[in-house]
Amino acid sequence: MALTPTNDPNDAEKRAQRAASEQNVLLREVDEAFRQDQLAGFLSRYGLLIGALVLAALLAFGGWLWWHEHRESMRETTSEEIVKASDQLEAGNLDTADKAFAAIEADAEKGAAVVAKLSRAGIAFEKGQAAAAAKLYAEVAADGSAPQPYRDFATIREISINYEKMKPAEVEKRLKPLATPGTPFFGSAGELLGAAYLDQGKNSLAGPLFAAIAKDKDVPASLRSRTRQLAGLLGVDAIDDVDKALEEMSVDDGSQGAQ
Fold it and tell me: Which of 8, 47, 116, 170 has the fewest C-beta atoms lying within 10 Å of its C-beta?
């Protein structure tokens, strides 16, 4: 009777397999020990630096959180101070309001400081101190770090106060960039620019400019009415809607009679 052949390895093969398995285990242990030794050496050499960097990052993040909260708190405080100063101004307490705005200008961030200075300029003009008002407006107009709309407004106010002392050519140079249709101060800047044109004998430029202001629906009705009349005197038709023009002229006449 023939024996069924078996695939079981002989003793030599078993010993070889066991030795190979033991060798693999030993290699893994050695590799793990080597890695741990490397990590220990790395931490020993750079651990202090890593800890310092982590601590610095945490401190920086904490500092940023504090700064953000502090800044928001300061903004809220500044807003409250501006409201209080404005209340004093509305109540007619000009000196008290001026002192309050001066304190805001000295301590607040740039935007609020500029608002405070513009408010002080308005107070000075209200008190009849035209030269002081013009000086404050000029400071804002020349401040390259101030928001551009504030600078433009200050430029117009400064020139309107000092117009009689300025050369028409200088007025033209400074206001021409602002007297462009579609810009926020087109009406105010355009009216002054038109006056400078007239003073230089440039009627051919003044007439169309006054007409453009009169036709701009974003310009206040009183200013549209004035420039419409000026354009007419210069021979330029500035009336698109006759009924609307008559209505605006009647409103303008009524406001002048009430003054």
Answer: 8
Amino acid at 116: A
- Give the start-to-end residue ranges of the domains of the chain: 87-162, 166-259
Average pLDDT, the chain: 77
User: For residues 184-217, b (16+ Cβ closer than 10 Å) or e, as one string?
Assistant: ebbbbbbbbbbbbbbeeeeeebbbbbbbbbbbbe
CA–CA distance, 27 with 33 (Å, rounded to integer): 10
Total-model pTM: 0.65
Decide: helix, strand or coil at residue 201: coil
Ranges under pLDDT 70 in the chain? 1-75, 239-259
Greatest CA separation found in the chain? 139
